[in-house]
Amino acid sequence: MAEVVIKGGRVIDGSGDRIADVAISQGTIEEVGPDLDTTGARVLDASGCVVSPGFVDLHAHLREPGREEAETIETGTRAAVLGGYTAVVAMPNTDPTIDSVAVVAWITEQEALCHVACSAAITVGRKGEALAPMAELVEAGVRIFTDDGNGVQDDRLMRRAMEYATGLSSGVTLAQHCEIESLAAGGHMHEGEWSSRLGIPGIPAAAEELMVQRDLALARLTGATVHFQHLSTATAVDLVRQAKAAGLAVTAEATTHHFTLTHAEVASYDPVFKVNPPLRTDADVAAVRIGLADGTIDAIATDHAPHTADAKEAPFDQAPPGMLGLETALALAITELVDGVGMALVDVLALLSWRPAAIAGLAPWHGGLVAVGESANLAVVDPAARWTVDPAAGASRSRNTPYAGRTLTGKVRHTLVDGEAVVIDGQAQR
Q1: Is 339 a catalytic residue?
Q2: Catalytic pick from 147, 298, 303, 382?
Q3: Torsion sign over Cα 234, 236, 241, 246
């Protein structure tokens, strides 16, 4: 007898598209088909909705340990499940840094509403001076290494990291925040027309593009698997496109804000629009959208970066970069990519679910097929629901969303993590 039956939905996963009910028991999908028996089961209405494998975010800042005033693992994962995520990859720029087995163990012991996969720093303390103990961290379950917030500046050290990673028994991915610090130093927004108008020092696109070029050269030299975080420029996207055509083992992500917002937003001087890498030009946004549509970019990531109100209300040049993203990602993708440029819904779901799950090493537990015997990590979304973003209604401890007051299309109705309905009719259950 099923414990939960998702009734009347349209199932979309990596195998196709069909109308079916989904029955779940003990965390596993036990039956998929029309008109399933619901006797004794909790019924989740999916009329007019799509049943998809749960989403996987490759890039979330949960802030804990060390900056709990902005976010905790519990509040961040509550925001995640409300956004349809069943797994998030936590970034290592915490205090202390996630660069040891002890910190990984501590994070995995915390209360969470979805699965939290730890990334770990490439270098000790993210200082760019010495490699973190990667082999020990792999044994603890880490599959992605990144100094996110900073790119590894030392070319020789990055080469050593790639060579070391290729020798580990379990495959790992090195993820890079691509920014040449000497070029970006002192900048607070994209260097271009709007930075000149506003008198705000800019960060040139070349700061990103040169590091992408370097890491592609090192990947070619070492054979390492490299993932590029939050691509934001047209040239960077094209470099990755060429690398894939040449057969390099590279993947890339783009954030929701880099395909929905441009540097013109900074005209308000509102620090909510300050992010790193910065919001770019209309041409860059168009190139990111094309990259998502043609497969150059493998995943939509949020770069969910909560900050307290005090921090974000500082003057633009003093405020920290970062925006919230977990609760709005699906709706932005549907509004801007499906409704806006005609991408198929299945392709957007792939960018949110099974493609990032594969990069994170979480497949098929997450991002798998909606099929008998598979894990019941699922999102049920209403692709036609319209709603207005209200920062005060969000689950995060912080409120720094750039989409306040914007009406979007697409809303998560239910989320199931290991078979547990943690979101029902848009409300978190714990």
Answers
A1: no
A2: 303
A3: positive
